[in-house]
Amino acid sequence: MTLLADLLSTVFERRYRQPAQRVRDDRPAEDLAEALVGSAGETSGLALAGDLLSRFAAMSDDEKLAFFRHIATALNIDPDAVRTTLAAYEQDPSKASYRAFMAAAEPRRQELIRRINRMPGTTEALVRMRADLLRLGKGMPELEALDQDFRHLFASWFNRGFLVLRPINWQSPAHILEKIIAYEAVHAIHSWDDLRRRLQPADRRCFAFFHPAMPDEPLIFVEVALTRGIPGSIQMLLAEDRTPLPAEDADTAVFYSISNCQAGLASISFGNSLIKQVASDLAAELAGLGTFVTLSPIPGLMRWLAQEDPDWQPATPEDMQARAAHYLLTAKGRGNEPFDPVARFHLGNGAIVHAVHADADTSQKGQAQSGGVMVNYLYDLKNIAQNHEAFATGKKIVASTAVQALAKSAAQSQA
Q1: Which of 117, 131, 290, 391 is found 20 to 30 A from 96 (Cα to Cα)?
Q2: How does pLDDT run across 10-63, given as a tens digit for each residue?
């Protein structure tokens, strides 16, 4: 994939190479944005896009915020034009009236983003631009509306059909391995030796999604352990002195860390496709694998307990385990969705709550987030679609009888 991306990049660069003596356009960034949207020539548009991105990269946060506010308002839709063209379409539906309505209903700032993206190598710059927008625009309605334009376009540009699944191993390029260390968001990788223990042994796997426009930037990656049986402790799974298992002897694939890498692609869903694709590929590679589970943190548990019962203290690890099961099956947030973000993700993908383990994460982070409790979400490949449908339509949480019993015991102890 990297070779193909390099070839495509070379073709584009040769086609659109700008004259070496071209004078940089020093107009304000807001003027460059207006000019880019209104430009008719392809070459002039590319030059404007390049100047605009260079200007934006050098801005302070205050300058970026002012730029975002400008394009959010100056390049917004015209409500009167939308109403007029919609009325015309309702009165006389036709190709022309529909085209007029579509043109009025789409803000010009979407076309600005598209035109910036015509320049080779700018997709990654736009992802960084959206990261700045998300960071700076929280709580500002006009900027949150602008983000919907980025999100709408990115959902098309980064859909599953464009993504490439690549294995990451100890032989992968160093600059990719460095990014795996930097982007790991669940269980920190403390050294190159730590990384090697996660990639090199025969019972370890790592896979990442890449996009052809960003061939050296992983979008999301998952780390997998091949085991016999379902593990209940992350420290045991990652122990330095463990004995590797021959891959062909494994009966379980454990997804123990999933990390999104690009802040500018927040809310663009890749994880569900990643897990299902990796599970399918591993099942094809290793006939002995019959179980696909996660070993997941429960990041909202301690926060929820502090809200629900600030004075409660577990007498035993089993008390903590039971309260965690009760939390996973009953704690709800906005829209009747599970309160826990990791639960929302896996249940929405069609997994079930399979097992809950006390003292499963003894790290400082694990204790602070969930009192050391972790959970296995089970991906039953035959029932994923059914479970997903039940969750999507009725927010039904499917759980094993063991987890249901734990949750019931916690509820009874509170009564």
Answers
A1: 117
A2: 544 444 444 445 567 889 999 999 999 998 778 888 999 999 999 999 999 999
CB-based contacts of 381: which residues, under 8 Å, 6+ apart? 279, 280, 283, 292
Question: Is 296 noted as a catalytic residue in this protein?
Answer: yes
Q: Identify the CATH number of the domain in which residue 26 sits.
A: 1.20.140.90
Q: Which of 296, 326, 354, 357 is catalytic?
A: 296
Q: Tally the domains of the chain.
A: 2
Tokens coding 403:
């987890």
Give exposure, 326-342, as e/b (b: 16+ Cβ within 10 Å): bbbbebeeeeeebbbeb
Residues 169 and 138 in one domain: no
Residue indicated by tokens 């809200």: 307
Nearest to 300 by CA among 336, 339, 335, 348: 339
Task: Calculate the dihedral angle through the C-alpha atoms of 243, 247, 252, 255, rounding to the nearest 10 degrees.
Answer: 80
Q: How far is Cα 5 from Cα 24, in angstroms, rounded to an integer?
A: 28
3-state per-residue secondary structure call for 370-386:
HCCCEEEEECCCCCHHH
Q: What is the pLDDT of residues 268-293, one digit of tens each?
A: 988 889 999 999 999 999 999 999 99
346 among known catalytic residues? yes
> Does 290 lie in the same domain as 237?
yes
Q: CA torsion sign, 6 to 258 to 278 to 172?
A: positive
Give the CB-side neighbour count of residue 210, counting CA atoms within 13 A: 20
Distance CA 182, CA 265 (A): 17
Among candidates 375, 352, 351, 371, which has minimal Cα distance to 363?
371
Q: Do residues 127 and 174 both lie within one domain? A: no
Does residue 276 sit within a domain?
yes
3-class SS letters over 227-295: ECCCCCCHHHHCCCCCCCCCHHHCCEEEEEEEEECCHHHCCCCCHHHHHHHHHHHHHHHCCCCCEEEEC
Q: What is the pTM of this model?
A: 0.89
Catalytic residue among 346, 354, 357, 370: 346
Q: Quote the CA–CA distance of 298 and 345 in Å, as a whole number.
A: 12
Q: Which element (helix H / strand E) includes 353? A: strand 352-357
